[in-house]
Amino acid sequence: MYKATHEFSIGVGYSSISYQPKKVIEYADNKSFWLDDIHYDQINLPITYKYHIKKNKFSIYPTIGCEMNLTINNKYSFLENSNQETTTLPIDKIIGNSEYSASLYAKKEYYEGVADGGNTSDNISLNALVGFGVSKNLNKDFILYIEPYYQYTFFNNKFGPNHDKINSLKFKIGIQKFLNR
């Protein structure tokens, strides 16, 4: 016999996001350089709704929700090629350095995460979530679950030097504890 139930949940999570932006090479004093890596560490606050269809100890469910993200740390890495040698440059070698002042990279804004003194408003993003999951009751208080979902960024305020919107496919696996059952 199948039994349907509704579930609302809130949580706290952590994400570490690293990616390589589109390579745009610039030149200064016989050197070429480009933004090679962008890295964000975020605290996530998801709110989700799940509609469980249960049979015995198993459940399948679609899930929808939204998630607020607060970026706590931003890191930007540049690569520089000079005389056939490639070296990593920290962002402070590009910003405020007269050698690179004419570059487009030097004119962009690179926001610091809140842990590094950045403004909260510059480090918030909101995402829509949609996915599905499978869970198994381990006992009356604990459930094991697997949940892939798609995350779509619909709001961010000046997020990164390229105003990126990071949409992603994520995969959660874990154990859930019920507090009042």
SSE blueprint:
Layout: E1 3-10, E2 13-19, E3 26-28, E4 31-55, E5 58-82, E6 85-90, H1 104-107, E7 124-137, E8 142-156, E9 168-177
Antiparallel strand pairs: 1-4, 2-4, 3-4, 4-5, 5-6, 5-7, 7-8, 8-9
Keywords:
181 residues, nine-stranded antiparallel beta sheet, mainly beta, 9 strands, elongated, 62% strand
Biggest pleated sheet: 9 strands, antiparallel
What is the tally of beta strands? 9
User: Quick check: average pLDDT?
Assistant: 87
Computed structural class: mainly beta
Low-confidence stretches at least 5 residues in length (pLDDT < 50)? none
Assign a percent range to the helix content.
under 10%
Radius of gyration: 22 Å
Question: Quick one: overall form?
Answer: elongated
- The termini sit apart by 22 Å
Tally of separate helices: 1
Strand content: over 45%
What is the string of SSEs from the N terminus onward? EEEEEEHEEE
